[in-house]
Amino acid sequence: VALPAPEDVIDDAKRAARQTVDDVVRAHPELAAVEFTLEAIAGPPGPVLVEASEDADLLVLGHRGRGSLRSALLGSVGLHCVLHATCPVTVVRPAAATARTPAAAQA
């Protein structure tokens, strides 16, 4: 199986990211005034993000912790960025799943 060309992977990543941003802005129109830069760069994520932080006011990273203990820890990319970025780093975790209401509380 042939691997796609790096340029194709980057273009696909940019399209997916742009679609996500557009969806969020549609759901939250007040965010349309927020200025941001969307880039897709090939390379090892930690060093690429640290290099990008040199010209940034803030580096925002997603976190996809798995399980209760692992979700409390930063992954290797997040840790690398927190330790080496030249600007503040914010790690955004997914929203907690809505807890189920016990049947007794519904009565």
Structure overview:
This protein has a two-stranded parallel sheet. Helix content is 46%, strand content 7%. The longest helix is centred in the first third of the chain and has 22 residues. With 107 residues, the protein is mainly alpha-helical. It starts with 5 loop residues before the first helix and ends with a helix.
* Side-by-side strand order of the widest sheet: 1-2
- What characteristic shape results from the CA principal axes? globular
Distance between the first and last residues' Cα: 57 Å
Secondary structure category: mainly alpha
> Count of DSSP helices?
5
Q: Unreliable stretches, pLDDT < 50, 5 or more residues?
A: none
Largest sheet properties: 2 strands, parallel
Radius of gyration: 18 Å
Percent of residues in helices: 40-55%
Number of separate strands: 2
What is the string of helix and strand elements? HHEHHEH
> What is the average of the pLDDT values?
84
In terms of DSSP E residues, the strand content is 5-15%
